[in-house]
Sequence to fold (80 residues):
Amino acid sequence: MRYCEESGCLERADRSGLCWTHYNRRRGQSNATGPVTKKLSPWERLAEAALNYAAADSEDDYQRATHGLRNAAKQYRRNG
Fold:
């Protein structure tokens, strides 16, 4: 199996040597910038949301973290 030629990308590559996302970026068909991020599993998303909740240090951060944790828990309950 071949992997994408882009530095740090661990996605499978096609015959061009690039993953689908980087191939489209090079062709100018994607507005995305920055590295390709791996989709998190429902459990990983829930754990990340819990860490964000624990690290909240202002009222705005707390509200955002509470909302993110609630959504992650719902997603985990559905798909976990």
Observations:
- The radius of gyration is 17 Å.
- The chain has two domains: 1-37, 42-79.
